[in-house]
Each structure stands twice: as C-alpha cells, then as structure tokens.
Amino acid sequence: MERKIGKAIVIGVMIMVLQIAVLDNLAIWGYATPYIYVLLLFLLPYSTSMGWLLLEGFLIGLMIDVFLSTGGLNAMACTLVVYVRNHLVTHLLGVPEKELDTFSPLLSTDVKPVAMMVVFMLMVLMHHVV
Questions:
Q1: How many whole angstroms separate alpha carbon 111 and alpha carbon 64?
Q2: Which of 28, 57, 63, 118 is the most exposed place for a label (fewest CB within 10 A)?
Q3: What is the model's pLDDT at position 2?
Q4: Apex CA 66: angle with CA 62 and CA 56, to 5°?
Q5: DSSP string of 96-128?
Q6: Could you say which DSSP state residue 46 is in?
Q7: In whole angstroms, what is the distance from residue 105 CA to residue 83 CA?
C-alpha cells in the first residue's frame, strides 16, 4: 500500500514539473498552452473522501498558481473539477455509485476508452471555462 502511494506521489510530482518547466513555456500556434496536470485530477483515487479530494484538488491548483502567478484561478478551477468529477463518472461512464470506490480509470475494462476521453475532455473544458 505504501509503495502505491509513493509511486502516485512521484508520478504526480513528475507531471507537475513537466507542466511548470516545459509545457507552460510552450505555446501551440502562439496561443494555446497544454495543461496536462488536469489529468492528475482525473486519476486521483475514487475511494478518497470528498473532503480530501477537494483539498488535494485545491493544493494541485495552488501549486500551479504559485509557479505561474495566476492568483488562485487554477486552485478554484481544480477544486470545481474535483467536485464534479464523481458525478461525471457515474452519469456519463455508467459506473454505479456503490462501485465508485473500486473504480480506476487506468485499470477499468468495463468502460470504453472513448467514453473516458469524453469525460476527461469535459473536465478540461470545465477547467478552462472557469
């Protein structure tokens, strides 16, 4: 169990460093900046309580805000995305609320990858609109 947590933290830190050091300096067509750190919000454990999820989402967004000087916008957007995430998964992917604790986007064989991509894109769209 501790090994899984350690591995998840290392992956999360690597994604954050990639976002801050490389992708924020990259502008596609001179305008769009790719935000892959939103993927972390989608991959957070679904068995975690909503209070902890909101705190984790806020802290992920706050770290981006600190390094990019965006004044809390990412913290607010990430908190909202984490709040809505479980509802999107249950309603759009058809995962029953009873089974949400055992759901893992990377290990799920019951849900089609295209459907997961749609949910992820909706999360990214919601993040960008906020």
A1: 31
A2: 28
A3: 64
A4: 20
A5: -GGGGGG--TTT-SSS-HHHHHHHHHHHHHHHH
A6: T
A7: 17
SS3 label, residue 55: helix
CA distance 71 to 67: 10
User: Consecutive 10-residue runs of the chain (130 residues): their mean pLDDT?
Assistant: 71 85 77 82 84 91 88 92 90 80 75 83 88
Could you tell me the pTM of the whole model? Answer: 0.83
Residue whose entry in the numeric block shows the structure tokens 């305008």: 31
Q: Which two tokens stand for residue 87?
A: 């509802």
Q: For residue 99, what are its two tokens?
A: 């089974």
Q: Which tokens in the block code for residue 61? A: 């967004």
What residues contact 87, with CB distance under 8 A and at least 6 apart? none
* 123 in Cβ contact with 86 (< 8 Å): no
Are 74 and 66 in contact, with CB atoms under 8 Å apart? no
